[in-house]
Amino acid sequence: MSTVGKKKPKILNFLLVVILSGVFGFFIGKFGFQAGKTLPTNVIWIWSISFIPVFFFVIGFHEAGHAVAGISQQFDFKMYVVGPFMRVKEQDGWRFKWNKNVNTSGGMVICLPTQTHNLKKSFSIFAAGGPLASLVLTLISFLVYLLLRPLTVSYFFLSLDCFRSWFLLSPFFLFGQEALPQMAGVS
Question: How many CB atoms lie within 10 A of CB 127?
Fold first, then answer.
């Protein structure tokens, strides 16, 4: 098969992911904007403020999935970055450092292989660890959401509902953002 023949399915898969992501984003934005019109101002503030800790927690959980998967493949766990926080393994142990690189603020785990046997499988498992952790967090968040569903409507419960929605939706979007391009063969 020629190089052009091999590239065609990858380009089509890439375009499909881009188009579906755009359509999905459009509807999320459209319905999110409509829902935002009916929310009280204090709920919008609580939701906005809760975004930062939820972001760090969700990204941290996702990156922990990569780390656990890497360790399970006997990789040497070297670095864990979430937002401005970074833990680096040095010769005398783990050290905390501030992450000053904006490119890695969305999270990063560095695990290096210690053997050369079956690297493709090991790296595939390492790469899948994060999206799987995000999927697990989505399921846990959904169960908590169902268990804590408010029986009455008040500003407190509406605020709590928004906070739980962040926990429910954030790992799901992170799973989709990482897993879909890999399944389409784009990354």
Answer: 16
